[in-house]
Design goal:
single chain; 6-stranded antiparallel beta barrel; alpha+beta; Elongation Factor Tu (Ef-tu), domain 3; GMP Synthetase, Chain A, domain 3; 4 domains; 3-stranded mixed beta sheet; extended; 8 helices; 15 strands
Length: 376
Amino acid sequence: MFRIETLKELVERARRAFRSNLSGSDAWLWPNNINPTAKVIGGMTHEVFGFMDYIQRQKFALTADGENLDLHGEEFGLSRRPTAPARGFVTVTSPGAVTFAVASIFRRSDGVEYKATAGGSLPGAGVVEIEVISTTEGKITSAIAGTPLEIVSGLTGDNTATAEVSTDAITGGADIEPDGAPFTSDLGTFRGRILFRKRNPPHGGAAHDYVQWASDVSGVTRVFVERLWAGVGTVRVFLLMDDLFANGVPDGANIARVAQYIETVRPAGALVTISPPAARVIDVTIAGLAPNTTDVQEAVIAELRAMFRRLSRVAGGDTAIGGMPYLASPATFSRSWIWQAIANASGEERHALIAPAADVTLEIGEMPTLGNVAFI
């Protein structure tokens, strides 16, 4: 491995070179012009070495930065997933008759606005659902159920009507796809998708092709594939959208969005089913946490969330094959993973894991998600 010397070491080399090659000079004596000259030479050399190191990193998708990562993707016809607006429904409650026109505007308290894509009306007191899309794009435009909204325009009738995000939430808002950390292969990042494509060349509808196709759609972070799940020619694809939904399980609208895209790329004759996994909620009970402080409890919960995202997988009826972790095969969620995540929490000194009392065996189509965390 080539080691780049520090700036101090390069300056020292320049000083020694002057002493060796310029008779009678000594860069360590003051005053003289050899010492500042050695510093200039050392600094310029260090800059050249730094640029060479940068160029070296850009050669590989594992370590490339920003614009150069875009070029790696371009070689495979891959581009970043763009920003996207959030979509969903707004629930309007009114004590009297109201009518909402197409393009009516609803505003969140932080200024994010949603525009009605279809009108709606009430002949009297009641509740009406209005379909909306955010007027801007990005992850920030998504909103959880029950978020209050101001009715800005488009209302005719009783002006005491109130609005809030419907029970299905407003989802799908996405930022431009991030680079992803060096040496990581998360499918929710551009680097991860490029690395997956390089490691798994297209193969006419092989299991990994469905992983690639599904992850091309904005919002998808994990994919599991179950081959021959309902007979010859059938494929079932399970999707996770960890950045858009609290438990990662997407709603029907996002499932339909992915299904529509895969329909355009799947092999002729393949019968493809796109499904959300069923959340298998695992409650965790911890006794004897020491020190039992709010900070340590929050650290424990953060570690548990990270572990569930890292290690949870969708169970299926496929055959487990080494090197193909994306297959939906029989799976068990280990109790030891939970214990270890708690032990990894910053500040934790000891604990006893009460529940779950044993490993959790998953049924076909299930994926473990973190439930309530209780400290006793």
